[in-house]
Amino acid sequence: MAELPVVSGRDARGGFERAGWVYRRTAGDHMILIKPGVRNNLSIPDHRELDRGTLRKLITLAGLTVEEFVHLI
Predict the structure, then answer these.
(1) What is the pLDDT of residues 6-47, one digit of tens each?
(2) Per the count of CB atoms within 10 A, which of 4, 26, 29, 42 is most buried?
């Protein structure tokens, strides 16, 4: 199992965009990403460092594994 890296919100956004997610808008300090055919949206905090629990939840919601996400970033 790959170790979960410490990344910024913008770095995480780049990884999710490489996985097919599309930046839609900003709401406050959160970046909203959508993916056609997927019901849920990703709301990524625009922070310098994301909490590991928050990042892990975003990866799960995106339907990825930690290994796949690490490869994307």
Answers:
(1) 899 989 999 999 999 999 888 889 999 999 888 889 999 989
(2) 42
The count of other CB atoms within 10 Å of the CB of residue 51 is 11
State which CATH number among 1.10.260.40, 3.30.920.30, 3.30.70.3340, 3.10.129.10 fits the domain covering 9-72. Answer: 3.30.920.30
Q: How far apart are CA 7 and CA 25, in angstroms?
A: 20
Phi, psi of 42 (to 5 degrees): -105, 130
- ∠ CA 16-3-52, rounded to 5°: 65
The model carries a pTM of: 0.85
